[in-house]
Write a structure and sequence with these properties.
Blueprint lengths: L11 E3 L3 E5 L6 H13 L11 E7 L10 H26 L8 E4 L3 E4 L2 E4 L5 E3 L4 E4 L2 H8 L6 H19 L2 H10 L3 H30 L6 H11 L2 H9 L12 H14 L15
Parallel strand pairs: 1-4, 4-8
Antiparallel strand pairs: 2-3, 5-6, 7-8
Helix pairs in contact: 2-4, 4-6, 4-7, 5-6, 6-9, 7-9
């Protein structure tokens, strides 16, 4: 990727080095929030139910793989990608007569408290609409490269762009409407709505890539393939296969590898927001 024309975003909240202490797990409202967060984002709630979490300002020594240096380079990369999304979506919103409200990206290590509840790094990056913040532990990029076999800087940028896609959905009122529908739906229908929401975020990530490349030539040879591979590797079918050894389509919350690739590619190739309608009456394919 070529990010030399992209300014670093100033909307970075760095909580790395803050330790999150563990309390005693119970059956109270905190536990319910954790379970709901886990179900919404499509991961195993048992990962989080190791104890309720409390964030403090006690310093925490990062592991060797996260010592200053490489981490600072990754912070700069993330800030430039976020800056690129801000510039792109601000221009797109302005062209539509609207104002883009820039989100905050929170860097954390191990665990974090958000307005949506508590989460551990094992849950992966996520967006919280309640505080309009994206949360990411940079160690996820190591997992993306090694565990999910999706290396490359554009693969890393795709992850951020997808979460920013959720922010766009939140600003447009799409997320609130979907959550309202989910509250009145059964599990299977709610999962289907979640899939449509996630696939649209993939398409919106593609819109960013198309626009930023057209305006500022950010893509290099092989970048698109890196992004499409990342989208495929974190498809529900492949994630379930790794975790369980088998696939349960009714349990999909983010979409299959094929679906994620298709909708990310649609955004990249078309650059047309109208092509990101995953909520039409036709089945999502």
């Amino acid at each position: 990727m070529r990010l030399d024309q992209e300014d670093e975003s100033g909307n970075i909240e760095d909580r790395r080095g803050f330790r999150v202490s563990r309390g005693v797990a119970g059956g109270g409202i905190g536990t319910i929030v954790i379970i709901l967060l886990a179900l919404f984002f499509g991961f195993d709630p048992s990962m989080l139910l190791q104890g309720n979490l409390r964030e403090t300002n006690l310093p925490q020594t990062p592991p060797q793989s996260q010592q200053p240096g490489k981490e600072d380079e990754m912070r700069q990369f993330v800030a430039r990608v976020l800056g690129s999304t801000e510039r792109t979506w601000s221009e797109i919103f302005q062209a539509a007569g609207q104002t883009y409200q820039k989100p905050t990206l929170v860097l954390f290590s191990d665990a974090v408290e958000s307005a949506c509840g508590f989460a551990q790094a094992a849950a992966g990056p996520f967006y919280c609409g309640a505080d309009q913040k994206v949360y990411i532990d940079l160690s996820f990029y190591r997992d993306l490269r090694q565990r999910f076999q999706a290396p490359g800087d554009f693969a890393q940028a795709y992850v951020i762009a997808h979460e920013i896609g959720h922010h766009v959905q939140n600003l447009l009122g799409i997320m609130k409407k979907v959550q309202a529908l989910q509250s009145r739906s059964g599990e299977r229908e709610a999962n289907g709505l979640s899939v449509r929401l996630e696939l649209q975020a993939d398409c919106l990530a593609g819109i960013w890539a198309n626009y930023a490349h057209r305006e500022r030539n950010i893509l290099e040879e092989g970048d698109i393939e890196e992004g499409l591979n990342a989208a495929a590797q974190i498809g529900d079918d492949r994630m379930q296969k790794r975790a369980r050894g088998y696939v349960v389509p009714d349990g999909f919350t983010h979409g299959s590898a094929q679906q994620r690739v298709q909708w990310f590619r649609r955004g990249i190739t078309s650059g047309d927001l109208k092509q990101c309608d995953t909520f039409s009456s036709r089945p999502v394919s």
